[in-house]
Amino acid sequence: MKITVIGAGYVGLVASACLADMGNDVICIDNNIEKLKLLEKGIIPIYEPGLDELVKVNLREKRLVFSSDIDNAVKVSKVCFIAVGTPQREDGSADLQYVFQVAKQIAKASNGYKVIVDKSTVPVGTAEKVTAIIKKNSAHPFDVVSNPEFLKQGNAVEDFLYPDRIIIGSNSDKAIKIMQDIYTPFFKTINRLIIMDIKSAEMTKYAANSFLATKISFMNEIANLCEKVGADAEMVRIGISTDSRIGNKFLFPGLGYGGSCFPKDVKALIKIASESGCEMKIIKAADDINKKQRQLFIDKITKKFGKNLKGKTFGVWGLAFKPKTNCMREAPSITIINTLLNMGAKIKAYDPKATDTAKLYFGNKITYSNNSYEALEMADAMLLLTEWNEFSKPDMKKIKKLLKYPIIFDGRNQYNAQHLKKMGFCYIQIGKR
Questions:
Q1: CA-wise closest residue to 410 among 288, 249, 301
Q2: Element spanning 200, H or E
Q3: In angstroms, what CA-CA distances link 197 with 126, 239, 275, 389, 413?
Q4: Count of CA atoms in the C-beta half-sphere (13 A) of 430
Q5: Is 327 one of the annotated active-site residues of the chain?
Q6: From 18, 28, 261, 327, active-site residue
Q7: Phi first, then psi: what are they for 42, rounded to 5°?
Q8: 64-95 residue pLDDT tens
Q9: Residue 209 and residue 257 in contact, taking contact as beta carbons nearer than 8 Å
Q10: H/E run at residue 165
Q11: Is pLDDT above 70 for 117?
Q12: Cα torsion through 120, 121, 122, 123, rounded to 10
């Protein structure tokens, strides 16, 4: 099938490569010419495991093409995916100007029946607005479909190629049949393609992400209580996660959630509810707890070193909001590092993939190390902020020699507390006294 994906950002690029890998002819559209030049050479502007190889293979096989010519792409395609950004406004709502702009461009370029797919995360009612824009600017038949993405950064290619489920929001049998044709190859053993009305599909994405964000905040709140009463949050986590009704995902206490989805979608859902006269008390609490979690980690540091940190240096492991990505949007490291800098501290940091991204946030205010151990040389303490695999089994004897004081603040509960204490470390975790 001939498919156009408009937007070569995170979602659009993954979708384009994966759809092409299933044998479709895909044109990925973007208006950033410099980005397109890099993509045409197989150079990927984001770090996502497996994506670079997928792009290179499908470029070579000519199933994937990058272009800025949206008019031609729409004319030769039956299906047009809208995968542009929906950035968060100051009031928490989603900015849909790019979605509406693309809808108008599709309408004006249409030369026959088209399926227009909202792949971007958009609030309830967006499909109706897109429909109105297309009707105003085109006389050709079309259907608008809601097809929200559920991609986890660091695992997006796997998520797209082997999905838990695919949501299709449409009332058109014709459009549903076309979407089924696109997605059937992604289900090898069982069909998990779920058909529903458009508004329910639009709501599903926000509901899913807000639920997972709430689960994270719930575990963090339990962990904070564990610290106060002397319980072990890790034991509690195991105790509740083995209940099949609860499960073990998104139940690890730490520094809270970040990234491009959870913070934005939680705030957007709160805004949608407010505009509808509905108060989201649980979701609001999840958002508040998430902000508080970073401050609690900072409080652990100031409890040990005081609030005047002038002359103190901290070695930071991890800057990305999670492993396997270079994304730092809403990353806990931003809040924590900026607060420590404002208190007079110096920061030496290392991240396997996010150093270039970090320079956009911190500039020359911190020192960027070439490896994890270099970041700890003569530091007063180590801060573990992102649980990259390479941080899971470090040489603790070496760490102790490098640090001025054997102190580790672990925001991800990576290490064996008893072992470190026997070695003479002061080891401070989340959810443990």
A1: 301
A2: helix 198-229
A3: 13, 38, 21, 41, 42
A4: 27
A5: no
A6: 261
A7: 80, 15
A8: 999 999 999 999 999 999 999 999 998 989 99
A9: no
A10: none
A11: yes
A12: 170
